[in-house]
Amino acid sequence: MAYENRSVIFNPAEGLIVYCTNCNPDGTGVLTIYQNGKWRILTTDCPTPVLTAGTNDSVMNGIHWHWNYSPIANGYKWNTTNDYNTAIDLGSATGYPETGLICFTTYTRYIWAYNDCGVSPALELVGTTAQIPFSPAPLVTSGIRMMIFLLPPI
C-alpha cells in the first residue's frame, strides 16, 4: 500500500508490518513496522563483521597474534600482506602463532573476518619480537686494589 493509505490506518497494532510502495527516501517500496507509536522502515541490511585487535604474545623468534571474537563472523583469514585473496583461512580461531621470525624486529600482519554478507576491512596488527636477553656486567664485590710498578730496563 502507498504511504497515504498506510498513514490513515486507525490505531495500528504494535508490530504491524506493512509493505509501503513509496515510503523509502528515494520513493521506492520498503517494509515498515509500527513500533512505539511510529512507523519505522525495516532494513534488510546484511552487516559484515567488525574486528578489533587483541594483545599479542611475543618471544624472540615469534609472535602469537590475537584479535577479538566477532559474534557475527563465520571465520577469519590471516596474511603477511594486505591481500585477502591469498590469506590463510583460520576458521573460527582468534589467534595465530607465527614462528621463525627475527628477534627484536617489528612485523605487520593483516586479519579479516567474513560471513555470508561479506568481508570486514583488513585489521592491521603490529607486533615486535622479543629482544635477546643480555647478561648484566659482572659486579665488583670486593675492594681489591692493584698496584703496578715500572722497573727500569736492565
Topology diagram in text:
Elements: H1 3-7, E1 17-20, E2 30-35, E3 38-41, E4 57-59, E5 62-66, E6 75-79, E7 88-91, E8 95-99, E9 106-115, E10 118-119, E11 123-128
Antiparallel strand pairs: 1-2, 2-3, 4-5, 5-8, 6-7, 6-9, 9-10, 9-11
Describe this structure in words.
This protein is rod-shaped. The longest helix is centred in the N-terminal third of the chain and has 5 residues, at 3-7. The chain has one helix at 3-7; strands at residues 17-20, 30-35, 38-41, 57-59, 62-66, 75-79, 88-91, 95-99, 106-115, 118-119, 123-128. The mean pLDDT is 90. The protein is mainly β. The strands form 3 sheets. Strands 6, 7, 9, 10 and 11 form a 5-stranded antiparallel β-sheet that branches. Strands 1-2-3 form a 3-stranded antiparallel β-sheet, with no helix packed on it. The protein has a 3-stranded antiparallel β-sheet with strand order 4-5-8, with no helix packed on it. The protein has 2 domains: 3-41, no CATH class; 57-128, Immunoglobulins (Immunoglobulin-like).
Main pleated-sheet profile: 5 strands, antiparallel
Through-space gap between termini: 123 Å
In total, the number of domains comes to 2
Number of strands: 11
The sequence of SSEs as H and E is: HEEEEEEEEEEE
Proper CATH architecture of the largest domain: Sandwich
Label the overall shape.
Answer: rod-shaped
CATH topology of the largest domain: Immunoglobulin-like
Percentage of β-strand residues: 35-45%
The poorly predicted ranges are none
Structural class assignment: mainly beta
Determine the oligomeric state from the structure.
single chain
CATH superfamily of the largest domain: Immunoglobulins
Q: Nearest-angstrom radius of gyration? A: 32 Å
Number of helical segments with 4 or more residues? 1
Percent of residues in helical segments? under 10%
Average pLDDT works out at: 90
Name of the top-level CATH class of the largest domain: Mainly Beta
